[in-house]
Amino acid sequence: MRNAGASVNPPTDPFEGVPLPSNPVPPGAREPRLPPAGRQPGPSRNGSRLPPGVSSDIFGPTGLGGSSGPGRGSPVIPPAADPPQPWQMPPPPERPSPRDEPTLVPGGDGGFPRPEGSRFEEPPPRSRKGRRIFLIVLAVLFVAGLVYAVPAVVMSGKVLPGTTVRGVDIGGLTVTEAADELRERLSAVAAEEMTLLAAGKRFALDPDKAGLEFDVVATINQAPSGFPGPGQVWRALTGTTELDPEVSSDRETLNGAVDDLARKIDLKVREGSVTFKGVEPVVVTPRDGRELEREAAVAAIEDAFLGPAREVRLPVSVIKPKASAAAVRKAAAGASGALSGPVTLTSSGRQVLLPVETLAAHLSFEPDASGDMRPVFDARSAVASVEKGLIDPATAPRDPTFRIVGGEPRLVPGRKGKGIDDERLATDVAEMVRRDGERTIPVALTTVQPRMSDAEARGLGIKERISQFTTFYDCCPPRVTNIKTIARLLDGYLVKPGETFSLNEIVGRRDTARGFVPAPMIEGGRLVDSVGGGISQFATTMYNAVFFGGLEDVQHVAHEFYIPRYPAGRESTVSWPQPDFRWKNDSPYGVLVKTAADDRGVTVAFWSTKRYEIESISSERYNVTPFENATDTGPDCIEMIGQQGFTIDVWRIFKQDGKEIKRVKKTTIYKPETNLRCS
Asked: Basic and acidic residues bias located where (predicted)?
C-alpha cells in the first residue's frame, strides 16, 4: 500500500529516513534557538535525538547538538519530524465532553467554527456596521420619544393648540374654559337673523324662533382633550384644526318655520283654460308654479346656521303647466263654433233644446296629457233643467229624504228609475265641439240609482233642527215667484257629510221651463231684468242658516250695494254662472234642507245633529260714503233708491256648553247705491 504511510522497505541511503530541519541553519549562521521553556526534547542516545546508528558528526562543526545548553557550543539535535505523507489531511477533531464543548461561532478561518470567546475572535465588518445602525436608531427613537412625550404631557387634559371654532381659538383651554369662551364669543353670532333667498326674494329668519341653537357641548366634544397621540401632537405643533359648530334644532318648530316660508314662496301652477262669460270665450293663460322643497330647505338652513355664508339660497322647484299658452289660444279660437246654435237632445220621440247659454255655461276646455286642450262638458248639471222633458216623471229616480211630522223627521224612501246617461252625453257633446259636427244628439237612457240608499239616509244623524232663518218681502212682484220656485226645487235635499253644496250646480241655469220668470237683478251697478232674478234673497236666507248652523262657508259674495231687508254683513248674492253660493257640510252628520216660501217671506231650516251654539256680533258701520243722484231716460230704466256705502265687521262666535271655542271675523264693504230716477 503506497499511500497508507511510510514505506516498509528499508532505505538504501542512511539519511533518507532523516527529515531535514524545518528551518535549516546555513553555514556560518548563529545557533538556532532553544526550544521554549518547558518543552523537553525526546529521548536520544548520548543526549541527542538522532535515530539509532546515526552519528552526530554528520552535521559537521556547526556547534549544534549537545546537551550542555546554549552558549556552550554543544550541539542540539532538532526533533524528528513525523513521517511524510503523500497528501495533507487535517487531523480528526477531538470531541470534547458536552460540559466542556465550546460555543461555536460561524465564520471561522478555513470555513470551520471557532470557539466563542477566543482571544483570536474579531467581529466581521458587517456585524460592526449593523451594531452602529442599531445604536443610531435607538438614539433617534429615544429623542423622538422625548419630542413627543414632553409636549403630549403639557397638552394632556386640554383642547389641542391650534383648535378654532368659527374663528374663536380654544386651543390650550380646558373643556370648561373652551365652552365658556365659545358661549361668550358666539352667542351674538347665533342670535343674528339669517337671510334666505328664494324665488328672487329675500326672507329673514330668526334662528331662535325657528328652533335653532348653538350646541356648545357637542362642538367641544369634537376636539380631543385627553392624552394626545403622536399625530395629534404633530398637528398641534405644525398646523391648525378648524371645528364646525354643532347645531341642535327643534324639528317641529323648524318645520313650522319652513312651512310659513313656503306659504310666502309657493305659487300654485295655473293651468290654461277656456270658459265662457255669457257666450263669449274667456281665456285663462297658463302660468308656471313654484314650490319650496321643504326637506332640502330645512337641511340647508341647519347647515348654514353659524356658518360663514351671510345668505342662504333655498331650493325651489318650478312646476310647468300641462298646456302651453299657444294651445289655449287655439282652443279659444275654435270654441266659437261650439256656440253657433242650440243643441237638440232626442229620446223615444221626445226632444228638448239645450240653449246656447246653457251649453256655454257647462262647457270648458282643459289641458290633456298630450299638452293640447280638450273640451269638457258637465252634462249632469246641464240636463237638470231639461231632463224632465225627456223622462216620464213616473219612471224618474227619486232620492230618499225626510219630512217633518210633529217636529220629528221621518224617512221618505228613495227609488231607482230611468235617467239620461250623463257620461255618454258628456262624451257626445265634447266630440261635437271638437269636430264642430251635427248639433242633434240622441240621448241614451240608463237605470239611475238614487244618490244614497235608504239605509245610508237613516245613518246620517238627522234628528233635530240645528238652525233656521227667515227673510221677508212684499207680495207679490215677479221676484217672489222665483224665490218660491227655487225653494220648491231644494226642499228635502240631503247634503252628505263632507259634501259641498253648490247652488248653481244643483239648480242649474234658471229657465222658464221650470217656472222661473224675468225679474230685476243688479248687474253693472244697475237693476236689469233677468230670468230668475230675485233668488239672491233665497241665497241670503240659506247663508244665514249655514252661519247659525256652524257649517263651513266656502263661497259667498255680498251684494254690491246694501239692501235694507238683509242683515248687514250677513247676506249673499248669486247669479249664473257666477258668482255661486257654496258651503260645506264639515260635520260627521248629514244635513237635511227644508224650505218654505209664501207671499210674505221665505224660510230655510237645517236638520242634523247640533254641534255648536252660534252667536253673531256686528261692529258699527264705518267708512261711510254718500250716494249720488242720477236720471236715466232709457226704456229699460229701473229706478233705484239711494243708499250710503259703508264698511262693517261681523264676528261668528262658536260655543259649546256656553264656552267659546273660536270666533271668525268677516269684513264687508258696500259701495254707495245711486239714487236713480227714470224719466
From this structure: 116-125
